[in-house]
């Protein structure tokens, strides 16, 4: 399990977001049929006016210890499945994400 793709500027991850999920949390990694991996996340925010996207950015930033400005939605702004770009040291970010998912029993 490696979770995400290293890029020149950091890490790119695919996230399946559940808005109105009752809590803000990362829930695990789901393997797709094509071999890619997707992080499962839920947020309390509703999917209106970008609230769920903002909550997801905040959750990822807090989990990885980076500024919200370092997390950007590259694609999927209005979809449940989103691609996020996280600026920084890619291998370190990847390790932090995997550790956070393990701590939560994901």
Automatic annotation (TrEMBL):
GO terms for cellular component: cytoplasm. It holds the Pfam family DUF167. InterPro entries: DUF167 (IPR003746), YggU-like_sf (IPR036591). It comes from the Bacteria. Belongs to the UPF0235 family. HAMAP family: UPF0235 (MF_00634). This is UPF0235 protein IZ6_00870. It comes from Terrihabitans soli.
